[in-house]
Amino acid sequence: MATIINIGESNSIFNHFIAELRSTEIQQDRMRFRRNLERIGEIFAYEISKKLDYQPHDVTTPLGVATVNQLIEQPLLATILRAGLPLHQGLLNYFDRADSAFITAYRKYDKNEDFTIRVEYVSSPSIGGKILVLSDPMLATGASIVKTMKSLLASGMPKSLHIVSVLASSEGLDYIKRNLSLHNLTVWVGGIDDELTAQAYIVPGLGDAGDLAFGEKD
């Protein structure tokens, strides 16, 4: 059973960054949009770090030796291109010795405007026995996350899985719960919106994170 943690439920500067991501006025500043995604990734990394395992290490200072608890292992950071890059960078800023994995997943539309999720490229070390952090800014239907995970599972079973999304829909979270039965699964979100459009975009959401970060695509 997946554990859902909504960081946006608690008052913090995190919600200020979420508000700026949603704002149509501030979205005009593409660099600020990317930076806010990055800062949000840093906060997610800090919160995830509290759930990881530590052991004491002696550190020599100019005046003696201090014993400090340090991470036993860095997680493996995976993200879905292209929208996930700034969020991934924020996570990487804190887990700065982590290995990375990159996956291309996109919506393939037919003439009726229905779509399927296509995964075309996976660049990843083995995830077997690893702490895996998979990030994607928007968790709309949940299909991209599920299909991506099925592709990654071809290289092993992770010890634990943390899914990170800035905004999620209630429907997408339900889909994750039904279709990812991995042991030790935690989904981290910054906000949960109840509605999806007919084209499966989150409402009120924030729009297309990839386009806002990097420019509109054909």
State the gist of this model.
With 218 residues, the protein is an alpha/beta fold.
What would you say this structure looks like, in words?
By secondary structure, the chain is an alpha/beta fold. The protein has one domain: Rossmann fold (3-Layer(aba) Sandwich), CATH 3.40.50.2020. Helix content is 30%, strand content 33%. It contains six helices and 14 strands. The protein has helices spanning 13-22, 30-49, 85-94, 143-152, 170-179, 209-214, and strands at 3-6, 54-61, 64-71, 76-81, 100-109, 115-123, 131-135, 138-139, 160-165, 167-169, 185-189, 192-193, 195-196, 202-203. The strands form four sheets. It has a seven-stranded mixed sheet with strand order 1-11-9-7-4-5-6, with helices on both faces. Helix 2 packs across helix 3 (85-94). It starts with a strand and ends with a helix. The mean pLDDT is 92.
Could you state the order of secondary-structure elements as H and E?
A: EHHEEEHEEEEHEEHEEEEH
What level of helicity do the residues show?
25-40%
Task: Assign the structural class, choosing from mainly alpha, mainly beta, alpha/beta, alpha+beta, or little secondary structure.
Answer: alpha/beta
Count of distinct structural domains: 1
Mean pLDDT: 92
| Spatial extent as radius of gyration | 18 Å
Poorly predicted residue ranges: none
Quaternary class: single chain
Strand order of the largest sheet: 1-11-9-7-4-5-6
What is the percentage of strand-forming residues? Answer: 25-35%
How many E strands? Answer: 14
Notable features of this structure?
single chain; 218 residues; alpha/beta; Rossmann fold; seven-stranded mixed β-sheet; three-stranded parallel β-sheet; 14 strands; 30% helix; globular
